[in-house]
């Protein structure tokens, strides 16, 4: 644990235990979303599904990257991940992105993906609001993840015909905002 780091955040008025709890719940959400997106992506078949695979894959990999970026901050602040994977899954800050009842229903699949991203947008906005001007490192991390989650939400919303996202499919490196935390 980075004791001075934790003290500085506490002295700035942040309840560090609460913040760590939120970070652990979001790490659980990211890892479980990565897992569920793997299942969802495999089931994106046929003409409609194939068009979504690349975007679903980008979101899937970026959610894994979000997990990887969150873990060091959790430990820097004196937290830790649960030793039990079932417990970790069950404390997720967002509900599981499970397959719809009809896994061939691509629109239902997109709705599952969209709901997962909307939950993540709410979670990271909350952390940004808690840490703005008080915990610069956590704020920067949460804001970086938030940028990518907003793009993911926009991608899936666009597929449902809710208007253009204004975003384009990533080419090359994933996690343009979070990659600085993965080095």
3D structure, described in words:
By secondary structure, the protein is mainly α. 67% of the residues lie in helices and 0% in strands. It contains six helices and no strands. The chain has helices at 3-11, 16-42, 46-76, 85-90, 106-131, 136-159. It is elongated, with a radius of gyration of 17 Å. It starts with a helix and ends in a 24-residue tail after the last helix. The mean pLDDT is 92.
Run of helices and strands: HHHHHH
Q: How widely separated are the two ends?
A: 19 Å
Beta strands, count: 0
Task: Give the overall pLDDT as a whole number.
Answer: 92
Number of discrete helical segments = 6
How would a textbook summarize the main sheet? none
Helix/strand class:
mainly alpha
Residues in helix, %: 55-70%
Tell me the Rg in angstroms. Answer: 17 Å
Q: Low-confidence runs (pLDDT<50, min 5 residues)?
A: none
Shape: elongated
**Per DSSP, what share of the residues sits in E-state strands of 2 or more residues?**
under 5%
